[in-house]
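We emphasize that the prediction below concerns an isolated chain of 201 residues; any contacts that depend on oligomerization or on bound cofactors are therefore not represented. The input was used exactly as deposited, without trimming of termini.
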Amino acid sequence: MKQDDIEIFANYCVFMRSIYLHARELFETSSAEDKALMGATAGMFFGDLNQMLKEYVILQVCKITDPAHDVHNNDNHTIAFLLERYDFSSDPSISKRLTDLLASMRAFRDKLRSARNKLISHLDRDTILAGRPLGAATDEDWNQFWLDLQDFVCIVHRKVIGSTFSSARQTGLTAPAPAAAQAACARQRRRRPSSPIARPA
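Result of the prediction step, given as a token string:
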């Protein structure tokens, strides 16, 4: 069912955003006192957890921006797949907006792809020996990606299912209540800055 396609994808995006926010709250926006407490209590554990969350988020971004089909022609549940599967041509302005969002998110993916390909999905020997960080993106890049993804989810949900998407999770990707979700989908872009989840070295 097309409703399942969209709902599953939308909720997966909200989950991704949740993981991103967990990482930020633990390791970037927490107080110096909290960071010191984590270091003193279980420094190696929290260091490993930070690395795992960074790599996980990069992998998820690359997964949802993968092509519509893999090399064996299996469907990938991705942005490109949804744009291929559902016809938005009856509304040229929406079709163009979705195409523009895809292009923007793919450009962001390109910044992360080397980290995904050489350090996360595979262990490229030359890259490891070189010791160079990969997958760096600025706070602005990450902010723009989440805004693009939010717009994509809201537009596709509204056009295909006919209703505004909302989620119980307080992630900033979508809102917890219908009224707030409508405001989010109207692109009220007030966001706190987010730091890059990058450089899995």
